[in-house]
């Protein structure tokens, strides 16, 4: 089944342009799963998730960035 762009891919196509269709689908699925938890990601959240998908950052750095946004600073 071909990839159908999610709302975030339509909103920020430049972020998704660097991904292949399989990567786009994984990122879209992750965003959809988190939306079920009432999380509305911003551009920087999507960019971080894409950086993780592309291997630019590891899981630990992704978690650190996410916690920093949630807590308003560096995690303890």
From TrEMBL:
Lineage, top ranks: Bacteria, Bacillati, Actinomycetota, Actinomycetes, Propionibacteriales
Full protein name: Antitoxin VbhA domain-containing protein
Pfam entry (one): VbhA
Domain of life, per lineage: Bacteria
Antitoxin VbhA domain mapped to chain residues: 23-69
Record Gene3D superfamilies: Antitoxin VbhA-like (1.10.8.1050)
């Amino acid at each position: 089944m071909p990839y159908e762009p999610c709302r975030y891919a339509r909103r920020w196509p430049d972020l998704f342009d660097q991904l292949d269709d399989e990567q786009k689908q994984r990122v879209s699925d992750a965003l959809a799963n988190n939306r079920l938890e009432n999380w509305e990601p911003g551009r920087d959240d999507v960019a971080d998730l894409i950086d993780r998908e592309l291997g630019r950052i590891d899981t630990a750095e992704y978690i650190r960035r996410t916690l920093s946004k949630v807590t308003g600073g560096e995690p303890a």
